[in-house]
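Sequence dictates fold. Next comes a concrete instance:
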Amino acid sequence: MSLALAELVSAAARQVGCDASIRHFDVACLAESDAEVWFPIPGMYGGFSLQMFRGRLHAESWSRVVGGSGRAYVITADRTTLVDEGFV
């Protein structure tokens, strides 16, 4: 799941022109807690909210400067699925 999240974050960063080096979040840390983690992305004026639920990573992304930029994903070991978009 960490690789899928890294790819998702990198794609979002490229869309906003972010060329900064991003140290990607280790999803294994979320498996130890039910906490929600905020992962900001430079230049995006937003980022990703991450939380594990029943063995799946739930990721929501948004940008403060782009209306309707919200996207929600469910990431498993097999795939990344866009489950909602257009909010925020």
User: Anything to note?
Assistant: The first strand starts at residue 37 and ends at 41. The first helix runs from residue 2 to 15.
